[in-house]
TrEMBL record:
Entry-linked Pfam families: Bgal_small_N, Glyco_hydro_2, Glyco_hydro_2_C, Glyco_hydro_2_N, LacZ_4
Catalytic reaction(s) noted: Hydrolysis of terminal non-reducing beta-D-galactose residues in beta-D-galactosides
Biological classification of the source: Bacteria, Bacillati, Actinomycetota, Actinomycetes, Kitasatosporales
Name this polypeptide is given: Beta-galactosidase
Entry similarity comment: Belongs to the glycosyl hydrolase 2 family.
One MF annotation (Gene Ontology) recorded for this entry: carbohydrate binding
Length: 991
């Protein structure tokens, strides 16, 4: 590679020729032309290989066509290379600021027409909203400039290069550059021109930039305008028709704040926007302003004087087919979905999103932490030696990034915090970014999690802090020091508002403990909530050789280094399907709390500032899940932060069924994000009459037997079940294994809270070591009486002396069959167990068991530390809908606290099972699946699961919690399952 080229690619300064200062992304009536659409495209494997193509006469007819915006690795069916996924690691040698000569380089060309009218324009500007990672631009063969900063906007003045009529623009994009060292976010590496390209006519006398800073104070609003325009562009007029504002400034010196006597504030809950225009004779800019004041007072973060609690998510821009290419319709639907699930905040991890996203956030209502495009996490590997964050050679690049970030989006009321970036160590360049933001925007605080000791940021922020640690941060115990802090630094950090910029790692099945974090927020006002990691999976739609579609993750494209399925850690699957964790989140974050007290219910409004006028309250009573009465609950208006005590309706209590009251708070009218009647919050009250469980009948007269017999509808051979209700059924066999979840496979260090965890070793490894997935059985005895059968089994694994004794007693009880299984571990088990259950195989027989109807907790799967979304009721689902299609197959489908279960085959009922509570009143859960835990554990993707005709029913006396150990704390001790004796008792009726 020529030294000139090499110097260019490894230049730490952010390109040359892009216009500065950066400016807002504005809606203007000045003419513009989108250059999106098909471009000619040629890909070269190195930065040098390609012949020059910038000359206007160059013949590109032999080139391919590619859509702009797009990522070239997602176009061309693999012909243009493949996506690469890494979390922390650089997919190239750590040799900053250099990158390998093998540097895929995309050359783009297209013609465009410059309208004749544009000759009036003072300047013609070419804007790129996003190009990964380094690019150079030529227009009509004239070099225009170069830029890096993939998720940032760059504008170039092309006035002297363009002419009326036909023009040609050429762009060369290198996948790797010095910038790649500071864009090491945990996501796919996706090169190309992936955001809009726009040609803009800048009129003489136009408005270069405008910033309408707004504030709100007790009903009054203020607009403080900053107008950037030539002196000759004045007068400038600000109009907000709805507020009667029409303010003309004759000169720049006259521009002054405008006070408005009466406005409605903007909040994430009531995102009140006012249409505004800022105009000169030559140009008119349209903005939507929201009035709000952001401030930090002591350790409180306030908007409009009230404390904000972030029920937030980390949002990456990702789509299974488009990658980071923005699709407004999809983004709007995604944001509406967030609102429906009680999400009120977004951290734009870890770069500015497409600028339109912020318009949507203003409109739909979110508190936004807008993050700069910056991460250097790969330097962790070398103990942060050479980290750009503290290297003067990179200072300008850092400052350029934050300027472009803040300037582009400064007008949005939704943005309440600026974030410098993510996981870039610490250093003077970050401090310089912060200083620049403070000088430019005195109002909005600066966040950066890596500033552990709080030297240059305004908010104390952590990621994946455990519940006890979060509690410690919230409390005022001056003796306890905070992570990486001295006592004095701890005091400094405790003087600031705290957020969890990431918590509750939602990878695969999990996380547990949302509710524990939530509870802390209500006890410690310094804690302002947090942002779940993360909103959605980043799967890329791919196909197996036989054409089966699937969502690919790291390694599926043959990457040299990759981080597997760590990119699949969202509450939404790649195909937009909410996982049970999102339902759990919704229940935990619900903005209305119900506390039942005798014949009354206290209804608290936990919102920031909105009252309950948008809500209606409905109630219903069910007997064993069957509705018997329903109505509306009269609830007086409850203002934010207040409660109201409301009498409950009369509840008809059934003597022989469970009686449950359910109250829903629903939208009284349709919102922009949900229809009328959408459930915002729910609570249940158990009003069941007490009914004792049938006692275990003591039997005598057991005698040894070969065990080949019939009891009721059950047939046995050699003591083992072979038929039930006229169908082949085998089991029960002890099942202690579950297909490890991503959290079970995690070995992160945050285990100090749980004696069940071994530091550095995953629970899944311990289970495999103990052979839980390969248990074998030795039958010790078979005995019977006239109407009962009893077997005793010793269950254990190869190469292990540990065992479990399993006694199974089948008996006829009236017209039902009872199965009672006593499970008793030997001494010596030291780890947690994933489950204590029994498994039945239900082979196809005449027709497969393919559905269930149950009374218990539902409708979604639930686990001991994720039970808040589950309600008691009657539910039904087909077998495939009982499992979640996690990108990497794993434990799924457990429905807790079962009372009655009916298995179905098509429309026909096959078997009715009643779960009898154990002597502590505990009820088992069930899982109905097409696959065994062992089969699920062996599959890396859903398409690897074998075709089966057998269904599997597992009844669990208990399941282990979920935790968050894929990245964060292990299962909380209370929800960790220790080996222990358990009883499972089922009553079975054939149908
Ligand atoms: C954090 C990081 C995120 C993501 C997450 C794990 O450390 O900021 O970008 O990698 O861990 O999924």
């Amino acid at each position: 590679m020529s030294s000139e080229l090499s110097a260019y690619v490894s230049d730490t300064t952010p390109g040359r020729g892009a216009l500065r200062p950066a400016r807002s992304w504005l809606h203007s009536d000045a003419p513009s032309r989108s250059l999106n659409g098909p471009w000619r495209f040629r890909l070269s494997p190195t930065a040098t290989a390609a012949e020059d193509f910038t000359d206007e006469g160059f013949d590109d007819r032999g080139w391919d066509s590619i859509p702009v915006p797009s990522h070239w690795v997602l176009e061309g069916d693999g012909a243009n290379g493949r996506p690469i996924y890494t979390n922390i690691r650089f997919p190239f040698p750590i040799d900053p600021p250099h990158v390998p000569d093998e540097n895929p380089t995309g050359d783009y060309r297209r013609h465009f027409d410059l309208p004749a009218e544009w000759s009036d324009a003072e300047r013609v500007v070419l804007r790129f909203d996003g190009v990964e990672s380094l690019f150079t631009v030529w227009v009509n063969g004239v070099g225009i400039g170069a830029a890096s900063g993939s998720r940032l906007a760059h504008e170039f003045d092309v006035t002297s290069a363009v002419r009326p009529g036909d023009n040609v623009v050429a762009v060369r994009v290198h996948q790797w550059s010095a910038a790649s060292y500071v864009e090491d976010q945990d996501q796919w590496w996706l090169p190309g021109i992936f955001r809009d390209v726009t040609l803009i006519a800048r009129p003489a006398g136009g408005i270069e930039d405008v910033w309408l800073r707004t504030s709100f104070d007790h009903g009054r609003g203020r607009v403080d305008a900053e107008v950037t325009a030539e002196a000759s562009a004045f007068p400038v007029t600000l109009r907000i028709p709805e507020l009667g504002v029409e303010q003309v400034w004759a000169t720049a010196a006259e521009v002054a704040p405008v006070d408005v006597a009466e406005v409605e504030p903007w909040s994430a809950e009531r995102p009140r926007l006012y249409d505004a225009t800022v105009s000169t004779a030559a140009e008119s800019i349209t903005l939507r302003v929201g009035f709000r004041t952001v401030e930090i007072r002591g350790d409180r973060f306030l908007v409009n004087g009230r404390r904000v609690v972030f029920h937030g998510v980390n949002r990456h821009e990702t789509h299974p087919e488009r990658g980071r290419v923005f699709d407004e319709q999809h983004a709007r639907e995604d944001l509406a979905r967030m609102k429906r699930f009680n999400v009120n905040a977004i951290r734009t991890s870890h770069y500015p999103p497409h600028p339109r996203l912020l318009d949507l956030a203003d409109e739909l209502g979110f508190w936004v932490v807008l993050e700069c495009d910056l991460e250097t996490h790969g330097f962790d590997k070398v103990d942060w030696v050479g980290n750009p964050s503290d290297d003067p050679a990179w200072r300008e690049a850092y400052l350029d990034r934050i300027r472009r970030t803040v300037e582009r989006d400064k007008n949005h009321p939704s943005i309440v915090i600026w974030s410098l970036g993510n996981e870039a160590g610490t250093g003077s360049n970050l401090a310089a970014m912060s200083a620049w933001v403070h000088a430019r925007d005195a109002e909005r605080p600066v966040h950066y999690e890596g500033d552990y000791t709080g030297e240059y940021t305004d908010i104390y922020s952590r990621m994946y802090a455990s519940v006890p640690e979060t509690e410690e941060i919230g409390s005022d115990d001056a003796r306890s020091t905070l992570m990486n802090c001295t006592p004095a630094q701890s005091a400094r950090q405790r003087g600031k508002p705290f957020i969890l910029c990431e918590y509750a790692h939602a990878m695969g099945n999990g996380p547990g403990a949302f509710d524990q974090y939530e509870e802390l927020v209500h006890r410690h006002p310094r804690l302002h909530g947090g942002f779940v990691w993360e909103w959605r999976d980043h799967g890329i739609l791919a196909e197996t050789p036989d054409g089966t579609p699937y969502y690919a993750y790291g390694g599926d494209f043959g990457e040299v280094v990759h981080d597997g399925n760590f990119v699949m850690d969202g509450m939404l699957l790649s195909n937009d399907v909410p996982t049970p964790s999102l339902h759990e989140y919704k229940a935990v974050a619900q903005p209305v709390r119900f506390v039942f007290d005798g014949d009354k219910v206290a209804i608290s409004n936990l919102r920031h500032s909105a009252d309950t006028s948008d809500l209606r309250f409905r109630w219903r009573v069910e007997h064993d899940g069957t509705p018997v009465d329903a109505g509306d609950l009269e609830v007086p208006l409850v203002t934010a932060g207040e409660s109201g005590l409301v009498p409950l309706p009369r509840i008809p209590v059934s003597p022989d069924a469970e009686t449950w009251l359910t109250i829903d708070a629903v939208l009284a009218e349709a919102a922009a994000w949900a229809p009328e009647g959408h459930v915002v919050a729910t609570a249940q009250l158990d009003r069941s009459a007490r009914r004792p469980a049938p006692a275990v009948r003591h039997r005598t007269g057991w005698r040894p037997d070969a065990g080949t017999l019939t009891l009721g509808t059950a047939g046995f051979v050699g003591g083992s079940l072979v038929r039930l209700a006229g169908r082949p059924v085998t089991g029960p066999r002890l099942e202690l294994f579950r297909a490890p979840t991503d959290n079970d496979e995690g070995a992160s260090d945050g285990v100090e809270e749980s004696d069940a965890s071994v530091a550095g070793v995953s629970s899944a490894d311990l289970w495999r070591r103990d052979g839980l997935h390969r248990l074998t059985t030795r039958r010790l005895s078979v005995e019977r009486t006239a109407d009962a059968l009893r077997t005793l089994d010793r269950v254990s694994a190869a190469d292990s002396a540990l065992s479990v004794m399993v006694e199974s007693v089948w008996s006829v009880e009236g017209d039902e069959l009872e199965l009672r299984v006593e499970i008793e571990p030997s001494g010596g088990w030291r780890t947690v167990w994933p489950r204590i259950g029994i498994r039945f195989e239900l082979p196809d027989g005449t027709a497969p068991v393919d559905g269930a109807e149950w009374f218990g907790l539902g409708p979604h799967e639930s686990y001991p530390d994720s039970l808040r979304a589950a309600r008691t009721g009657r539910f039904s689902a087909g077998i495939d809908d009982l499992s979640v299609d996690y990108a990497r197959p794993q434990e799924t489908g457990h429905r807790s606290r079962l009372r009655h279960l009916t298995l179905r085959s098509g429309d026909a009922e096959v078997l009715r099972i009643t779960a009898v509570p154990d002597r502590h009143g505990r009820r088992p859960g069930f899982t109905l699946s097409r696959h065994t835990p062992q089969q699920i554990a062996a599959a890396g993707h859903p398409f690897e699961l074998p075709d089966t005709t057998t269904s599997h029913l597992i009844v669990d006396a208990a399941q282990h919690g979920l935790g968050s150990r894929a990245c964060g704390p292990d299962v909380w001790p209370e929800f960790a399952l220790r080996p222990e004796a358990r009883t499972i008792r089922l009553r079975i009726a054939g149908v």
